[in-house]
Amino acid sequence: MEMALSLATGFLVALNLASVVVAGRRMTSKHAPSPIISGNPPVSIVVPMRGIENFTTETLQAAFQLNWPDYELIFCVADVDDPVLRDIRKMIAAHPLVEVHILTGDDRISANPKLNNCVKGWRAARHDWVVLADSNVLMPADYVQHLLAGWRKNTGVVCSTPIGSRPDGFWAEVECMFLNTQQARWQYAGEAIGFGFAQGKSMLWYKPMLDANGGIQALNAEIAEDAAATKLVRRTGRSVHLVSCPFDQPLGRRSMHDVWSRQCRWARLRRVTFPGLFTPEIVLGAFPPLLLGLLAAASADIGLPAMVLLIAASIYLPEMALAAAKGWRLSRWSLPAMIVRDVMMPLIWVRSWIGGTIDWRGNTMTIGTAVCELSETPVHSA
Where are the transmembrane segments (predicted)? Predict the structure, then answer.
């Protein structure tokens, strides 16, 4: 029994270290030179928007200042009275040389409000290369270069995970640790060994390819468009690839409820769309190896504090080294935030198996054991 516990502990620690190494080799630093792209094809960028967010002015301005010779911005807003339209029009007036279109209205093709909002933008896009970009992504000047550089012969879609930045308060630090050294790390490690998953924050499509396979409407096959994208791309014999340097999502203020509800929502969506891959997530984080290590130490009459310190150092030091190497958020709160995250992870995993309602971009949605439904009553989006 003691040997089995020790081997299981060592395996989980080694798995964690391997993910850090693989993801670290796959990604470049924020400070790396911009990718060089030949041909400079024109690009359409479709941005679904709803309401005013923490960094709306800044993320809008970044979209208007891309270092790309030929691109159009298509802003999709479901509600004609949405206050964000004023901000968009102000930005258009300040950047008259950028080609911009504002499309309003809602096409109800699915239970996914973001996808419904994107439909009109996809149809209006003039170029073969189309980016679907969330409104809270802070696009760097070389945003298009990074996306196009990720395209290979067998690519079906190129994506970027969100990297949490500019947190305000401890719970925003916790969300940074969820997004960066946990979720982005595992997503890049998976992609590096051939298990790429789409991420809806930024998605570069070759429009003729997607249109030949059902168009944007095909992404309503799953409640989450990134899950549908992953499955569609794999059915065509192609792969999901990620940009070499993921893009920032500035966070601002977060409460414990914000972090808990977001992580539970994403976990429940993963559980519904990829249940076989979601189930093993329970072994990720520091909690499982710590528990096994403590049981092994108790069986072998080894000092428990020494075992805790050894396992914690083996888990958290590589994570912090990865964040430092890639230029991600690190502060005096990072280690406590990692510990809180890892305490939350098993609780979130358990919660994901219980159906219930969630708030997604101002809409109440119900996630059961296999399906999601959109309620007709909008609620305030946190």
Answer: 290-317
